[in-house]
C-alpha cells in the first residue's frame, strides 16, 4: 500500500514552492536574534559555529557565496588536498574527517571531504548557515556592536539599489578571511578604535607558515566590544604572517574563538 501510494503520489508545484518559502522564512525569522552571528563559512567560521552549537548556543553563519568552505576547496594551487599539522588532528578526528599521515607531524585530507564533513557536522550540531547573504554593515548602540546588516549577495552583484535587513547578536565573529571585512567596516564607520597597537588593522604579513600558524591562534580574540576575529582575519587585524595551504590554524582559531565566547 505504502509503495503503491508512493508511486502514484501526485505532485503539486505550489506545495513545493510553499514548502521552500515557509520553511526558509520560519528559520530566517528564528535566527534574526542569536547568541553568536558568524560572518563567513570558511574553515574558521564553521569550526567556531560547531563548537558553539555543541554547547547549545544559538548560532547563525552568514555566507556571501553559494558554497561554503571559503578557501579550503582548492587545497593548494587547486590540488584538492589539505595539509594539517599534528596539533590540529584531534579536531579532524572529532568531526569525522579522515586523515592520512604524510610524515611525522603532517597529515593530509581530501579537501572536498573536509569541507563537506565540517559543514554537515556544524549543521547537525545546530548551526544554521545562511548562504547567498552578504554582511554589508554592522548595527551599533553606543559604540557596542549589536548586530549585522544583511542583504542578498545577488543585490550587490546586480548593482541594485535595495535596502538591507538586520540580525541581532550578543557576539559577532569576523571570519571573513584575508579581507577581515567586518573589522574594516568598523574602522571605516566608527574610527580607529580597535584593540590593536594603533587602533587600526595592522595588516597581514608575508608568508611564514610556522609563525603564521602560531600567531593565528594568539590573534584570535576580541577586537572591539562584542566583536571577535577568527581565521585569516585574525592575522590581518593583528599583523600576523600568512601560512599558505596549511589549514590546522584555521580550525584551531575557530575552536579558540568558541572557547573565548563560551567563557564570557
Ligand atoms: C558574508 C563573507 C563576507 C561578507 C567574506 O577565506 P576563508 O576560507 O576564511 P578562513 O579564515 O576560514 O580560512 C582562510 C583560508 O581559507 C585561507 O585563505 C588560508 C589558509 N590562506 C593562507 C594564505 O597564505 O593564503 O572563508 C571566508 C568566507 C568566504 O566563504 C567568504 O565568501 C565569506 O567568508 N565572506 N560572507 N558577508 N561580508 N566576506
Description of the structure:
This protein is of the alpha/beta class and 264 residues long. The chain has a single domain, classed as FAD/NAD(P)-binding domain (3-Layer(bba) Sandwich). It is built from ten helices and eleven strands. The strands form two sheets. Strands 1, 2, 6, 7, 8, 9, 10 and 11 form an eight-stranded mixed sheet that branches. It has a three-stranded antiparallel sheet with strand order 3-5-4. The model has no long low-confidence stretch (mean pLDDT 97). Bound molecules: ligand 48H. Ligand 48H binds next to helix 3, strand 2, strand 7 and helix 9.
Q: How would you concisely characterize the structure shown here?
A:
With 264 residues, the protein is of the alpha/beta class. It is 40% helix and 24% strand.
Q: Which class do the helix and strand fractions yield?
A: alpha/beta
Largest sheet: 8 strands, mixed
CATH H-tier superfamily? FAD/NAD(P)-binding domain
How many structural domains? 1
Kindly state the mean pLDDT as a whole number?
97
Rg, Å, rounded: 20 Å
Order of secondary-structure elements: HHEHEEHEEHEEEHEHHEEHH
The CATH topology is given as FAD/NAD(P)-binding domain
CATH architecture: 3-Layer(bba) Sandwich
Tally of strands: 11
| CA-CA gap between termini | 55 Å
Percent of residues in helices comes to: 25-40%
Bound molecules: ligand 48H
Amino acid at each position: 500500500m505504502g509503495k503503491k501510494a508512493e508511486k502514484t503520489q501526485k505532485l503539486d508545484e505550489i506545495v513545493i514552492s510553499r514548502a521552500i518559502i515557509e520553511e526558509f522564512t520560519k528559520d530566517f525569522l528564528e535566527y534574526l536574534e542569536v547568541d553568536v552571528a558568524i560572518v563567513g563559512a570558511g574553515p574558521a567560521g564553521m569550526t567556531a559555529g560547531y563548537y558553539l552549537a555543541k554547547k547549545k548556543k544559538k548560532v547563525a553563519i552568514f555566507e556571501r557565496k553559494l558554497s561554503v568552505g571559503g578557501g579550503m576547496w582548492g587545497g593548494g594551487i587547486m590540488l584538492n588536498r589539505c595539509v594539517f599539522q599534528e596539533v590540529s588532528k584531534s579536531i579532524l578526528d572529532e568531526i569525522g574527517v579522515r586523515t592520512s599521515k604524510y610524515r611525522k607531524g603532517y597529515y593530509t585530507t581530501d579537501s572536498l571531504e573536509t569541507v563537506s564533513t565540517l559543514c554537515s557536522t556544524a549543521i547537525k550540531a545546530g548551526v544554521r548557515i545562511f548562504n547567498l547573504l552578504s554582511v554589508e554593515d554592522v548595527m551599533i548602540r553606543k559604540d557596542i556592536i549589536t548586530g549585522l546588516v544583511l542583504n542578498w549577495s545577488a543585490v550587490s552583484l546586480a548593482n541594485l539599489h535595495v535596502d538591507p535587513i538586520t540580525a541581532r547578536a550578543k557576539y559577532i565573529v569576523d571570519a571573513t578571511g584575508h579581507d577581515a571585512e567586518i573589522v574594516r567596516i568598523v574602522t571605516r564607520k566608527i574610527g580607529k578604535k580597535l584593540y590593536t597597537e594603533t587602533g587600526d588593522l595592522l595588516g597581514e604579513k608575508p608568508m611564514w607558515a610556522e609563525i603564521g600558524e602560531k600567531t593565528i591562534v594568539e590573534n584570535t580574540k576580541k577586537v572591539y566590544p562584542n566583536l571577535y576575529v577568527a581565521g585569516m582575519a585574525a592575522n590581518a587585524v593583528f599583523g600576523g604572517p600568512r601560512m599558505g595551504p596549511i589549514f590546522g590554524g584555521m580550525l584551531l582559531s575557530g575552536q579558540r574563538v568558541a572557547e573565548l565566547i563560551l567563557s564570557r
